From TrEMBL:
This protein's name: CASP-like protein
Origin species: Dioscorea cayennensis subsp. rotundata (White Guinea yam)
Compartmental location: Cell membrane
Classification via Pfam families: CASP_dom
Subunit structure: Homodimer and heterodimers.
Domain of life of the organism encoding this protein: Eukaryota
GO CC annotations, alphabetized: plasma membrane
Domain Casparian strip membrane protein stretches: 23-174
Listed transmembrane segments: 29-47, 79-99, 111-136, 165-188
Stored InterPro entries: CASP/CASPL, CASP_dom, CASPL
Membrane topology: Multi-pass membrane protein
Length: 193
C-alpha cells in the first residue's frame, strides 16, 4: 500500500516523529492539563475560603469593647461565587476539550475550530471572574475610605490568603488559555498553507 509520504491518520505529524505538528499537539495537551489543574485548584481554594475571628465591638465609649465572632466566607460575596462558578465551568470544559484534543490528534478541521472558539469563551469567562474576585479582594485588602468600607485582611489573614492564591491559580489557567489560542492560531494557519 502506497502512502506517498503522508500519514493516513493525518495526525498533524506528516508521518515524522518530532515535527512541529506533534510538538504543538503535545504542548496543547500539556496546557490543557495545566488548565484542568489550576482552575480546579482555584475553585476549591476559593470555595474553602472561610475564617472566623473575634472582632472587638465598641457599643459606647464608656464601656469596654465586647468581642464578637465574625465570619468571612467566600459564599458571602457574589463576586467570589461567580469566580468559583467560572473556574468550575472552565475546569469542566478543560477536561472535555482535553478529550477532544486527544481524539483530534492535532488534525485541523471543524472540531479544532470549535475548540478554538470555546477556548476563547473560557478565556473571557476566567478573566471576568478574576477581575471580579480581584476587585473585591482589593477592597478587603485596602478598604474604601470614600464609602466607609474598612479593610478586613488585617483581621482575616487566612481568608485573604486563600483569595489571593485562588486568583493567582486562576490567572495561570487563563494564561494557559492564551497559549492555547496561540497554538490554535498557528495550527489553523498551517492548514491554510
Amino acid at each position: 500500500m502506497e502512502s506517498n509520504g503522508k500519514n493516513s491518520l493525518n495526525d498533524g505529524t506528516n508521518g515524522k516523529v518530532g515535527t512541529k505538528g506533534s510538538t504543538l499537539w503535545v504542548c496543547e495537551l500539556v496546557f490543557r492539563l495545566v488548565c484542568v489543574a489550576t482552575t480546579l485548584a482555584a475553585a476549591i481554594v476559593m470555595g474553602e475560603a472561610k475564617e472566623t475571628e473575634q472582632v472587638p465591638l465598641q457599643l459606647t465609649p464608656s464601656l469596654p469593647a465586647v468581642l464578637y465572632p465574625v465570619t468571612a466566607k467566600s459564599s458571602y460575596s457574589s463576586a467570589f461565587v461567580y469566580f468559583i462558578i467560572a473556574n468550575a465551568i472552565a475546569c469542566g470544559y478543560s477536561i472535555i476539550s482535553l478529550g477532544g484534543a486527544i481524539a483530534n490528534r492535532g488534525r485541523r478541521g471543524k472540531l479544532a475550530m470549535l475548540i478554538f472558539i470555546i477556548d476563547e469563551l473560557m478565556l473571557a469567562l476566567l478573566f471576568s471572574g478574576n477581575g471580579a474576585a480581584a476587585a473585591i479582594g482589593n477592597v478587603g485588602e485596602n478598604g474604601n475610605s470614600h464609602v466607609g468600607w474598612n479593610k478586613i485582611c488585617n483581621v482575616f489573614t487566612k481568608f485573604c490568603s486563600h483569595v489571593k492564591i485562588s486568583v493567582i491559580l486562576s490567572l495561570v489557567g487563563a494564561l494557559n488559555y492564551v497559549f492555547l489560542a496561540l497554538i490554535s492560531i498557528i495550527s489553523l494557519h498551517k492548514k491554510d498553507k
